[in-house]
Amino acid sequence: MALKDLFYTRFQTTLKPITVVHVWSGIDATVGIDAVYRSDGRLCIVDVEALPLEVVEKLASTSPANMQTLLARLADKLPCRLVVEAETRLPLGSQVKLIERTIVPGSSLKGYIRTALLYYLASREPNIAKILNATVRIGGRYKPKEASIDLENFFLRTSKPRKQGGLVDALQQLLVSDPKPVSPKLSLKELKVCEIPNMQPIAEVYAITMTGGQLVYDVAVLRKPRNPLKRLVREHSAVLDKLSLLERIDVLEALRRFGCDLVESEIARIKGVKELEGYVRLLEDLRKRYCGRVGECVVARIGFMTGHQAKTILNLVKRVNPPLYNSVKRFLSQYYGRVWDELTLKMVRMEDRLVGVGWCELCLTRL
Q: Checking phi first, is residue 119 left (phi over 0); if not, alpha (psi -120 to 50) or beta?
């Protein structure tokens, strides 16, 4: 079998930031120690493993109190694993969230596609309110990350034959490569958490974000495997049906539906807030550009500080089953020990306006 015969379809997929995109690496850098400002104003994330021997010797012979002064003096000579634009100069000791090595890994994009497909399938199901009641796990011994397991089982998984055990997942047929960056622009940004409608700031973090360029991925849907048996046993039929699910779904349309509903939800949350009029105009422009016509490109929201709307199907739950949505809110409030609501926004200042974090364009070109 030729390699191309393994694929049902393939896409060249590009991601371009519209606001700023950040996928956290799990590591923070400390300004003055492993993040230093160079003379041109850019921020160097120091490559500690590549430090020249003479620098290591100088640091070893310097007292902790003088180490930051020494690093600042050597800043232009230090090896950097990343150099980014910096709009502001942070005080020594400030923490900076470092972006993933591949900026937005293939696993992050696949996770977003998975949520979009689940949202799309659930939104087309006429009995979705009842299905949600039967499958959403809340309360008791469950944790928030376990809430959607049975729901995903209903739409995306089925049991393997009895002798094998376990589950088959439709998304195992979806392959997403890590990206090839094309002229990426990385910048240090302040990301704010604000309460609405008064726009009171309640927290802020500094992060290295993607603000320009694009990421190019190879996305493919595998063909379903052939039935190895001469007859179609019922349990094999269910497996083959689930493994062909993505052949029966318009992935681009699923992404469009999910992204456009995210835009509509965000507009509804902030419309009427005077300080966010510029953000509303941006969202309305995105709605006009991506939701009013069919094309290869869709609006998406990916990464850190994008909120539960972009990572779950709670927008759909809120719309079709308000009592269950309220139960989820109570469960999350009890679990986290604080009021869980939709009264906070994650914002970044771009030019002269505050806008939401994580908005980007996804374009899928069939190969």
A: alpha
The predicted-structure confidence for 152-198, as pLDDT tens digits, reads as follows: 999 999 988 776 678 899 999 999 999 999 999 999 999 999 998 89
Residue 150 Ramachandran class (φ > 0 left, ψ -120 to 50 alpha, else beta): alpha
Q: Is the pTM of this model over 0.85?
A: yes
- C-alpha to C-alpha distance for 124 and 91, rounded to whole angstroms: 51
DSSP state of 39: T
DSSP 289: I
CA distance 246 to 170: 7
Kindly list the averaged pLDDT for each block of 10 residues, start to end, along the chain of length 367. Answer: 78 98 96 94 93 86 85 90 93 96 98 97 96 91 89 93 82 97 97 92 95 97 76 72 93 97 95 94 96 92 93 94 93 82 89 94 96
Pairwise CA distance, residues 244 & 264, whole Å: 31
Residue burial 283-309, b: 16+ Cβ < 10 Å; e: rest: beebbeebbeeeeebbbbbbbbbbbeb
Sequential DSSP letters for 127-157: THHHHHHHH---STT--GGGTTHHHHHHHHE
Cβ contacts of 332 within 8 Å, gap of 6 or more: 144, 340
Distances (CA, A) of 357 to 29, 266, 286, 361: 21, 12, 14, 13
228 — phi, psi (to 5°)? Answer: -75, -10
Residue 48: C-alpha distances to residues 44, 71, 74, 201 (Å): 11, 12, 13, 35
Tokens of 226: 């052939």
Cβ–Cβ < 8 Å for 145, 277: no
Q: CB of 344 within 8 A of CB of 309?
A: no
Per-residue DSSP letter, 177: P
Contact call for residues 98 and 208 (beta carbons, < 8 A): yes
